[in-house]
Amino acid sequence: SRKRSGKNGVRFFDADMLDIARKRLETEQFIDQGLREDWFEAHLQPIVALSDGRVAGFEALMRLHHPQRGILPPGEIVGIAEENGSITRIGDVILSKSIANLAAISAIAGFGETYLAVNFSPLQFEPALPARLASLLMENDVTPPRIVIEITEAVLMLDNPAVREVLDALSALGCRIALDDFGTGYSSLSYLNRFPVDIVKIDQSFTRSLSTSEKALRDKSRMLVEGIRTISHQMGCTVVAEGIETDEQWEILRAMDIEFGQGYLFSRPLPLPALVDRLAEFVPEERAAVAS
Ligand code: C2E
Ligand code: MG
Ligand code: MG
Ligand code: MG
To answer: Is the dihedral of CA 32, 116, 270, 46 positive or negative?
Structure first.
């Protein structure tokens, strides 16, 4: 829009605002139509044990599959869906589809105990959620400990008693709670104390800087990650590192006793059929042993 606008600063601004408004309207239309015509999909990304590369679970990541535009990632969709409230309906679609996907994966030898992590926005913590989740689990023959609820500080910062009650109910049901993007917010540490958190996910920005060529940054990041790991373990949490893209990052994190990781090195998020093909490549010896 900058190129099309004149020299006048005000007109730059207007053109940009118009572009943003248009784009937003388009995304809102995609969301509405996507809910009506079933365009939302739950892609899954493996979460592996860093000690041996075995698949421990999967994170469900929302994709809007537009028939003409192809796969749209959640970036803009989630923000707009949170603002207009449609995130509760989208979230329910992702929850039911990803649990069905987990049930399908469970039928593959060696993957019967894997878990499913699902991202939740603040608005999704409605009073009806625990009962809804319990019934989806029954229908799909999945036990509650195999479900991880991923939340960010945004959920905990609300400090809303109703949200707190839903979190406690999910925890009482036997589901686990993960604190996502840890280390990127304002006061992450205190949340470990005040909420029933079981898993800490170290943000991918830390993983990236662990292997940077810039030595001072690398050393500081290592100390930070070791600090987060030590505190998390002392609070009884397991740790997952996000965004692992290289063997070097895997090796560094494994040497630090970080239990789990996910990233493009192991697999990108995939739709179910592609994931099932990909799973055949994971630690075949172990799968053969389990299957026989
Ligand atoms: P997140 O929960 O932190 O998810 C991890 C993001 O990192 C995903 O981006 C994933 O595709 C990406 N990722 C995984 N491995 C790598 C890697 O090795 N390198 C890099 N550069 N990226 C990697 P995605 O799928 O675009 O999702 C972005 C965010 O959107 C998520 O961040 C989450 O906050 C939100 N989101 C995704 N699905 C849902 C959903 O169903 N509901 C809600 N409320 N939010 C969702
Ligand atoms: Mg997440
Ligand atoms: Mg994350
Ligand atoms: Mg993230």
So the answer is: positive
Residue stretches of the chain with pLDDT short of 50: 1-3, 5, 291-292
The answer to ipTM > 0.95 is: yes
Q: Which atom of ligand 1 is nearest to the CA of 181?
A: 3
Task: Kindly report the three-state secondary structure assignment for every residue of 153-202.
Answer: HHHHHCCCHHHHHHHHHHHHHCCEEEEEEECCCCCHHHHHHHCCCCEEEE
Strand partners for 42 = 62
Q: Can you read off the two tokens belonging to residue 210?
A: 């662990």
> What is the value of pTM for the model shown?
0.92
Q: How many CA atoms lie within 13 A of 236 on its CB side?
A: 8
Identify the residues whose C-beta falls under 6 Å from ligand 1.
Answer: 45, 61-62, 73-75, 78, 87, 91, 94, 119-121, 150, 180-181, 204, 242-245, 262-264, 269
- Give the pLDDT confidence score for residue 284 in this predicted structure: 52
Contact 161, 122 (CB under 8 A): no
- Cα(282) to centroid(ligand 4), Å: 24
What residues does the ion ligand 3 have nearby, CB within 5 Å?
Answer: 180-181, 242
The reported pLDDT for the residue numbered 12 is 61
Nearest-angstrom CA–CA distance, 230 and 30: 44
